[in-house]
Amino acid sequence: MNLHTTDWNKFRTFYHVAKAGSFTRAAENLHICQPSLSRSIMALEVSLKMRLLKRSPKGVVPTEEGKVLLETVDAMLNAFLRYGEKLNNKSEEPQGLLKVALLKTLPNLQMSWLIPKFLKAYPQMKLALVDSDRDVGFSTYQFDAAIREFDENAQNMEQIYLTTSHIGLYASAEYLQLNGTPQKAEDLDEHRLVALGNPENLSSCSVNWVLKEGLTQSQQRSPSLCVSSIPEMKWAVKSGLGIAALPEEYVAENLCLVRVLPDIPSRPVDLYYVYPTYHKETKRVTAYGEFLADQLKAFNPAKTEIKQEETRVFGLKSGFHPSYAQQEV
After folding, report:
1. Which tens digit of pLDDT belongs to each residue from 3-27?
2. Checking DSSP bridges between strand 145-148 and strand 267-276, what pairing results, if any?
3. Which of 75, 95, 121, 271 is the residue whose CA sits 20 to 30 A from 256?
4. DSSP bridge pairs for 272
5. Which of 38, 65, 69 minimizes the C-alpha distance to 51?
6. Residue spans per domain, the chain
């Protein structure tokens, strides 16, 4: 075993494969082809003279030797990260690249108008707002923060309330003329529905409540079309392909869309700015969250204070400490 001649990138590649539990997902995360990634792992195993990964029914998992190496590489990556943040924090103003994950299954688009204002306020910052197909665990250090729903089971995470999006049912006037307008929730059984996400796991997306409206807990309607993002849902509805649950702010200026079953209350989806606690002193991470919270609070200050108080009380009960837990609200 000769660690002095082993390429550090091979250790990094191993880390991403072990964390992802899949060569395919790791290759997507690293933006490299899977054969190249596989060759890198094989070369590392040959260099270290030990097997690091083994196949399982769900993908790949580290061997006992691999677990030890994974912990070591994780500690090294974390040390590099902390060192980089110390260098950036020497500046009085936040600086550097901030990578924020935006889940495609959540209505984040309406925050885009704040980007120019933020970059003007923080000229040394760079933003990368990246759509993500799945929730972010931060374990692979791909993202610094994310915008997503509150997670009461999250450990060592800061969660800052931003805003609430209200989801109602909509269809195009053309679709309703051809197929009729549902008068009660049960009528949705006879209509074409547009859903968001993987057909095998639609119930995990809060936007898909139309699939269960008016049914028992164990029942779920089958959509006629599944798409990967809310803008695509909006396009499908405008094209007359069916009924979908859309954020009200997405359809405010689209007169061609009609609210369906208006007597059914719209469903609220609370959005939070989330980042690992180890970034609590990282200026470039906290600056963006504080900026978003401050800008969005102006639209509904009372609702923001209520949500912050709810999060603070939850933190006191569970041991979770949001970044504003010690502030007066």
Report:
1. 555 677 888 888 888 888 888 888 8
2. antiparallel
3. 271
4. 148, 161
5. 65
6. 3-86, 89-164+270-318, 165-268
